[in-house]
Fold this protein.
Amino acid sequence: MSDQGKKIRGKAQETKGKVEEAAGRATGDEELRGKGVGDRIAGKTRQGAGEVGQTVRGTAEEIKGKGQQMKGRVRKNM
């Protein structure tokens, strides 16, 4: 799954959790409320994983580009 997909699915899971949590609170169903809290937290975690993946991929591309620049400079000076 792509990092963007993780972020989207995470947001959906977080939203689902918020709805379950609110429904559980409104009906007095502690099990549903607890499930909602778990889904909300898991969704936030999944979103965070997607963001970290995007950051790592961007940093790797930046390093790769700088390496190619240095390689070009070395060849030019030979």
The first helix runs from residue 3 to 27.
